Amino acid sequence: MRGQVNGDDFGAGKTLPYANGSLSHVKMTLDDYLYKFDRAFLRTLVAKRMVPRIAGGAATTNVIILDLEYPFPWVHPCEYGTLNASTLAAVVNATRLRVQVIRELMPHAGIGLYSTVGCVSPSAQQGYLKAAALGLFDEITHLVPVMYMGAKTIATKLAHGALNASAQLTTTDGRQLQMLPLLSWEESKKSGGKFYGCSLEVAKLHNLLGDIAAWDAAAPGGPGIVAAYVFWTPGDVGEVSAPGHDCGRNSPQESYEEWLHRARIVPSSCPHPR
Fold this sequence. Notes:
The protein is an alpha/beta fold and 274 residues long. Helix content is 32%, strand content 12%. 37% of the residues are buried.
């Protein structure tokens, strides 16, 4: 199983946390993220906020995806290329500390970092590579390339661009990490989504999955670097795509569960294949 958690659970997020795990209304700054929390505070925070929310708790074997976006924009992986050398080094050190604490408290879990990669511009990719050279990925077990589809997205270009860029991100000793491509069941506005928030056409999804599988079969480190697929859903399973919008005949309003039934992508070996 895989689960995604936001920064509030590990000493990031929009507001400062208290030692008891509750959140204040005080905006978190970059300096707070970099210097305010020591290992002992982060251990207490993660133990109170994150561990109880993960299936299996401290003994979990799930892969936990850390969604690190705040304080925005500095700590978001897409923004590494905008930081000067000293700030990037401080962001990497602060992020690594959080990953180390999470792995200490849940030693059997895998850890992925959301949006690695999520942006494939030359400047963004240079930022990722600099962060990798500083050891950002040394304690991480999985990369999480983001592959949201929109009305103008070309599946082959998206898949090969994100996967090739992610494949360049290794540990400092050159170890290649497995990948969990993150997809969405809804059209993405960022990817030219004409029907933003409407359920993704099944044909588009299958094209994307086919291109990912083709890339994986010929991957630089050999087949199998793509460990699994992850789907982001914005809310509860019963949420309906694009409520109040006309999604058109090819993108009906439906729930995530209904879309999964129609997409027919859940393996029969899963406990709940329907």
